[in-house]
């Protein structure tokens, strides 16, 4: 098993540390029915992810990484919006089934649940081993990395903070645009959509040069 990072910090402090690096100015409370989500998935969820959803919500970070929406379904729903938890979890489990999981992990593909996806087609999730979700490490299927599977001894909020502050030995993602990014910008998915539909790039505020164009 490839692991990196140190001891997990207190779940009560990790989100506060992340908000210092990435202020949630364009975030929004998702109002998630966590009881329904837990029933659907058969597990609880880490407290930092629950706090992330109430502080930031689901959305994108500089167009390079998306934190996905928790869904009360374990199967991908027919929806115009791709990339929710169910769809990305299905993708992550498919990769486990097709190429095998992380070395030395005695578990099956159902032991991963996705919480994010990168612009480099990496899938980020939790290795849901153990009874305490706050102890679940982050697992990444890195499309262009080798080995593809890497495990990080931290939760998702701390993983993001370390990504932005170069807190790992190397960039954990195929695309390095957020590696050491001093001022990452999060935009909630509804606001992201509103900006695109108004012809504005959600992250730069500049006009989208392709707005209104039709492609065959």
TrEMBL record:
Pfam families: SUKH_6. This is SMI1/KNR4 family protein.
